[in-house]
């Protein structure tokens, strides 16, 4: 569970603090309070802090306050608190309020008469309680999703005590952020780490909006959340909502990319472990099959359901080697040509012209490669049963890529 700006303003004893700008940022998560003592804060914050500006140790004119706001936005702090009173900062400049509103940075006014020690103690205690409650909630959800419990009734009773109602039917979503290795190859490691942290926070915030009732489980670029889905109509709405968010998100993140796998709908708490496994299988397909456009639902897997259900990986490897082993060994020694050709041929449903265009090769080159494929594998692409075997083998190959 996270402590937000709205939660801070609702803490006992802090009623005299009031929001002056950017109500839209009330859901910003507060990591810790930080009292700004220098002229700037960029060097001293990591993101997510609630920054208190007193004016005691450094003069705070309008220009400096605007500078602090700019640095707060750059470092993605949770919000700014300006202490006002007769001694230091008499009033918050209107330009600062307007700029904070435009930037979406919550700006809170705190009377200087409210002692900082009381404020920081209240926030610190709330953060500790929030962290403890969050851990307990995460533990309950993780046990449900993994099936690691002896009594479902006792676990659900514990969930109710922790303020989580799991009654109803659910759909599990799994997300994964990939491509960070490309960033590390292009930029300084420290800058990349900071960038990844910001991206993780932004994604986590959006997921908490999608799942406001239950916590989002997440670590190291992977997230799991439960979405209400009593029937196929609700599941379709969930899918569309995620697609509408995912497509522009991946355009902004490039070269990073988020992939999403969704379980089927209407899973009661007793079947959440099954739903979790379905979402995992769908996520694998979303990652391995580019035509899925980054998102896949378990109900859309088709024959991949059967392949994912084979627990003995050696059987799948044996089938792949029997059907396409000669092509794999050819491409290993001579560079990838035959396997991409076969994949393009299948993707274009046997249309040689379209497959040649997809590969950017001459049609005669493609024809020669197809003949080579048939000779090496002892299969005929025009034979329906051979095509079925090859299609399944291609799926296994892509799942294991």
TrEMBL record:
Domain PucR C-terminal helix-turn-helix as annotated: residue spans: 338-395
Domain Purine catabolism PurC-like: 7-126
A Pfam family this chain is assigned to: HTH_30
Span of domain CdaR GGDEF-like: 153-284
InterPro entries in the cross-refs: CdaR-like_regulators, CdaR_GGDEF, PucR_C-HTH_dom, PucR_C-HTH_sf, PucR_dom
Membership in a protein family: Belongs to the CdaR family.
The protein's name in its UniProt record: CdaR family transcriptional regulator
